[in-house]
Amino acid sequence: MTEPLHRMSARAAAQAIAAGSLRSQALVEALLARIAEREPVVQAWAHVDHEGVLRAAREADSRPASGLLHGVPIGWKDVIDCAGLPTGCGSPIYRGHLAAIDAGAVAMSRRAGALVLGKTVTAEFAASQPGPTTHPLNPAHTPGGSSSGSAAAVADGMVPLAIGTQTGGSVIRPASFCGIVGFKPSYGLVNRYGAKQLADSFDTVGTFARSVDDTALLVAALTGRDDFAGLTPTRPARVALCRGSDWAEAEEPMRAALDQAMARLSAAGARVSTLELPPLFAGMTEAHKRIEYFELARALQHEYRTQRDQLSAALVSRIETGLAMQPSDYEGALALRENARRAMADVLAGVDLLLAPAAPGEAPQGLRSTGKATFNRLWTALGLPAITLPHSLGPNGLPLGLQFIAGPRRDAALLAHAGWIEALLAFPRHPRAGGDPDSPRRAAPPETGSPGCPPARA
Amino acid sequence: MTEPLHRMSARAAAQAIAAGSLRSQALVEALLARIAEREPVVQAWAHVDHEGVLRAAREADSRPASGLLHGVPIGWKDVIDCAGLPTGCGSPIYRGHLAAIDAGAVAMSRRAGALVLGKTVTAEFAASQPGPTTHPLNPAHTPGGSSSGSAAAVADGMVPLAIGTQTGGSVIRPASFCGIVGFKPSYGLVNRYGAKQLADSFDTVGTFARSVDDTALLVAALTGRDDFAGLTPTRPARVALCRGSDWAEAEEPMRAALDQAMARLSAAGARVSTLELPPLFAGMTEAHKRIEYFELARALQHEYRTQRDQLSAALVSRIETGLAMQPSDYEGALALRENARRAMADVLAGVDLLLAPAAPGEAPQGLRSTGKATFNRLWTALGLPAITLPHSLGPNGLPLGLQFIAGPRRDAALLAHAGWIEALLAFPRHPRAGGDPDSPRRAAPPETGSPGCPPARA
Questions:
Q1: Which of A69, A219, B277, B396 is the most buried (most CB within 10 A)?
Q2: ipTM
């Protein structure tokens, strides 16, 4: 069965547009048609720039391809400024607020030829109060958040690529829930200017795509770094399962998925192990929270001072906790983070990748919460690159994502290893819904796989 | 002779307003009168909000004082958003561009009761192309930059407090040139949201005041941290002169000032020494430049793509250098910085403060350059807190500033030590010009001072 155009990978689309065998306009029209069909249920978009993206697509079609993503559209989380479009921040305060200029990452994507399709739904200020987005495979479940719309839109075939931000677990968690590839780069790898700030020490611009290859292509475009554009899938020599101090929150299906992945990695020739973190890491969840609240109270002070009644009660509570916090508690949390960074350098000296849950389990039922960032906060706090790959479907028929973490600034190595693991684990590129072909598979029992030889690249 | 109202310290003004012995409106009127008199020569302001600040002053006078800076006005560098005022960024691109909301630090200052007096002149995007501001003591000389207007306005008595940003040396250098107290806090201490980004890894919001005490008060207001509001001047036990790899650029008068300061500190009971940095630090000037150019090329990509002809040739050149840079050169510079941070921790384990030049010497003649950041880049790159205190006047009658640096996050200790040193060195609070009483003194020969007992607080 032929892949529908709206499911085409960004790499294939960029190549076809450059080769003249696909018009950007046709791609955009297919995506807009998909959005028209599915948006009433999924509600992934805060704003779709129909006219603007079609105009930009025709303009791209009128000249020779230049740039890695010539004519390929991207969805942007609605806390990131795209010139001329509203930046709503998931808050009534910013309803209709037009951005004057492009964020740094948006401008870089345009430099690579990419188009802006629109703005995707975010939780209020990329914090916790959810937007209306539903899970593409089951609208009774959350798609995760805070980058809810970006994850859902990519998973549902509305756009091949989307951008999010992560301060706790706002990229990795929704990507895991939606069964796609989410990448939280090293702190600072992708420029953050023009993204609404939550906690400056943690805020990281990350990506959503349906494959590791598309992820690397997108990162290359966002950063202007060609070293990300042509990564070779590479077997990791050593992978360690890192349970962490919150392991009790990992649900049984997630534990099983991790065990299966470890068995497959081992069978394919990687040396696998399980590691315990030094005791000081037990304080990192609390330290993350303290730093986040202290900082967001200052970053959102204008809104708190001038339009408090327009903020959710949950956010007001966080801001007030941050304002009331003793400076010594904040400084203590920062100091603990520095110690944890140094200790983690020792841990990571012995392995290529850490493996951890991307989330406690499948996407929870209901839309009142986007789920827990339990298994994401540590890696965000340490600024380490992390990626989630879909592994299998859990008992509710919703995806379970693995999370791999690499050492500081080892983003390129992480993506190269992730490309190899993606092919090894061979999860269907993306679970399908809404009339698309392909039905996702349920979790399989552990397989042995053929050891040694890296799998061929999809 | 009575101190004119426009020269009153922020602390004294806040106390008088709170006590009901001074109206905020009277203070503001005195400052506006000073601006009216001096601005034609100094040109420190991109925008003075006459009506808004008077209205806010009357409003402050109409209710009981609340907050550390109730009724006290602040000048904001024109790369930082103040709601309803233009943010011009020192660029024709942003002429008349109105800010919709307050930057985080602006909102925090309002929370402390402070008023926004207006926006101060900045070099183009806080980089190198100077604005029109002249040195308050000699208009043929630069006031330094890029926070030119903030330094000149505070030095000239137009406003007691002002805010700048430092990516290279944009706070410490102009404060040194203008003979006032400039403070570049630890990276991230003051919230950066709403400040135009240049290089995310370095950008730091810093302060200008005419005393250490006012500096600490301002930092307390900006951060919402009472721990900065009531620091006790404290003698440093150990101070080390750190010449660094660019010592050859330190001019003779600056070297003499450092020697004098070391002699005074020693005579007053501090243990002084001279230290050499490990060889790896020799590469930090180049590493700073690489990181800055790589990052600003991405942060300013929108302006570069859409209005390149409105950028200075110097900035276009930096952006293009940053875009052409090999990712490995950028990553190598980041890695060197990490190594330098670790090495500096060892260096700082043995001392309370480092002493270094704040600038090569006095403010250079001419307005085509704001001077060199030679002696500032390292501390900015390492994210360490640094403060400059005026020491004496050089052969051209312009100020020479000392720079003191403390360990990571030791901002409060740095300010406490600086308060003690300020009283010890007893430089007149600020050199005077434009008809103000007091004439500044020339550099004196080394004095012996009375050892042991910390001087009384001014």
A1: A69
A2: 0.94
